[in-house]
Amino acid sequence: MFDWNDLKYFLAVARHHSTIAAGKSLGLSQSTVQRRLVELERAIGQPLVKRHPSGYRLTKFGEELLPHAERIEAAVTDFERRAKDEAHDLTGVIRVTCPEPIIGRMTKSALIERFQTRHPKLRIEFVTSDRYLDLSKGEADVAFRSGDTDDELIGRKVADSIWAVYASRGYIEQYGKPATVNDLPNHQLVGFDETLSMHRASVWLRNVASDVKMSARTNSVLGLIYAVKSGLGLGPLPASLGDAEPDLVRVLGPIPELSRSWRLLAHPDLRQVPRIAAFFDFILAERELVKSILS
């Protein structure tokens, strides 16, 4: 029988592809990681990883066991969190800010329901605005944001933010669709207004189609979606939202210049507050579901 504790060494090597990096992530020496991994393989009776010039890679058997190990890790983390919650009696409201379209995707998924089940005395309250809310001023507790962020805030990456160019089916029927980015100046385009002139989508459109007169401008991603759906023109949109719209067609992309990372952020003064820490821990534990919502 193997030591359940040895699964964490297997998971660390699987994620970092290096015993040195795995050791650093666990606060242990490389030799400890190697020794425990070898012991786990001996107890199981088959190799889990194989060393390559570029680092450690999982064997086929290791790949098969990985999701099972991750579920065990999640169950242990959940057990520890529940025990801690009972000890600290977590209660209160967590004010979450994120782009308005993302709220709909979150509430339609099982994410919020799972959080409420895990922390029945905590409540999520969404706060939205056309501008970035200031966490340092207490306008919200945590934020899901992509792209450039305030250096004062701290957080964790939770997903990739991918953008592409979309058009309505009606627009394509009437005007066709571009074959490459270079064809964009020959089409009607929609984008952000001057209040979001420095947004990466605005900068990109100016670079690839500087001489085009925009057919519509808006000050929000939601407004951009509506403009494209109405057939006013082509427009860059987050792939997570554009791909979910049955009336829209991805005509170009993903666009590398628009790709960024989604991060969960908080002000340093709040990050270790128990209710905020509980939300961070939950989101990181549910990152696969979070990725499906944001990416």
TrEMBL record:
InterPro entries: LysR-type_TF_proteobact-type, LysR_HTH_N, LysR_subst-bd, WH-like_DNA-bd_sf, WH_DNA-bd_sf. Residues 2-59 form the HTH lysR-type domain. GO terms for biological process: DNA-templated transcription. Keywords: DNA-binding, Transcription, Transcription regulation. Transmembrane segments: none annotated. One of its GO terms (molecular function) is sequence-specific DNA binding. Belongs to the LysR transcriptional regulatory family. NodD regulates the expression of the nodABCFE genes which encode other nodulation proteins. NodD is also a negative regulator of its own expression. Binds flavonoids as inducers. This is LysR family transcriptional regulator. It comes from Tardiphaga robiniae.
